[in-house]
Amino acid sequence: MKKVFLALFAGTLTLASCMNDWDTEMVDNDLYSAENIGEPTTTLSKLRKDYASVIEGQSYTLVNKDEIVEGIVVANDISGNIYQSIFIQGVAKDGTLDTSEGGFGVSIKGIGCLYAIYPVGQKVRINLKDLYVGSYGKSPRIGMPYVNTNGALKLGPMTFPMMQSHIQKIGKPNVNMVQAREITADDLSANNIDKITPMLVVMKNVTISDAGWPYAHWEAGGDVYSEYHDITIGGVKKSQLLYTSTSSTFAGDTIKPGKKTIYGLLNRYTSSYQLSLRSIDDIIELGE
């Protein structure tokens, strides 16, 4: 048996050597990125203004011309708490993240690990032609229409081939470009909701209600639900602010008592704020 094994192993080495001889040319094609879609022709800020009525109306519209926008990824689906989407914010003049206003969600279906393609800090350019701009719950989105379970047309994720041909990755991801905007309780006013969502934020001196309970999977009458939790920031309580999906990897983790610093994606659903952790690492425990 040993001789057979060695003979097969030697043959494998010979075959591998031949394959290496054939494959001498380096290939540097990214199958998940469009190529050379051009320089940006607009900004996320202008896009929000141009499509403000569509976004506010929770509708969507087809972009029928080449319109190229650039952004930096601040959140993705790495823990399952964000579904079929990445979130981008604008690029400041110095090349870092623009924290002056909210960005866009970019919805994509057909792949279950967008975080591996679009890690935080990845700069992207999107050619909007043949895609749709609108909103989901008044949160700005880029995607394509779909029919929901009630038979209504809504703005949902683009197909995987559309992602391949319309989104170009620019350079390598650089997490150092990404800085969260600090948010206080006063910032979470009704007048601000259009200005600071969707956005990567940090909240300091925070406690979460329901310590000792899970972030989600709260069973009531045998049912399992995604959960909203109250957050107290600097002594001010904000009701139903922290949202956790049952699909997240940390849904069953127990909420610890004590003060925290919390990072996360601050989003909206119609008139309500919604804070979603990108992963459990967005919670920094400070103790009692």
Percent strand equals 35-45%
CATH architecture of the largest domain: Beta Barrel
Secondary-structure content class = alpha+beta
Order of helices and strands: HHHEEEEHEEEEHEEEEEEEEEE
Q: What does the main sheet amount to?
A: 9 strands, mixed
The backbone outline, from C-alpha atoms, is: globular
- Unreliable spans: 1-27
Ends distance? 65 Å
Brief overview:
The chain is an alpha+beta fold. The protein has helices at 2-22, 44-50, 52-56, 114-117, 160-166, and strands at 60-62, 68-75, 85-89, 104-107, 123-127, 132-136, 139-147, 153-156, 167-170, 181-182, 199-208, 218-220, 223-225, 227-233, 236-244, 259-269, 272-276, 283-287.
Would you mind describing this structure in some detail?
With 288 residues, the chain is an alpha+beta fold. It has two domains: 44-177, OB fold (Dihydrolipoamide Acetyltransferase, E2P) (Beta Barrel); 181-287, OB fold (Dihydrolipoamide Acetyltransferase, E2P) (Beta Barrel). It is built from five helices and 18 strands. It has helices spanning 2-22, 44-50, 52-56, 114-117, 160-166, and strands at residues 60-62, 68-75, 85-89, 104-107, 123-127, 132-136, 139-147, 153-156, 167-170, 181-182, 199-208, 218-220, 223-225, 227-233, 236-244, 259-269, 272-276, 283-287. The radius of gyration is 22 Å and the shape is globular. Residues 1-27 have low confidence and may be disordered.
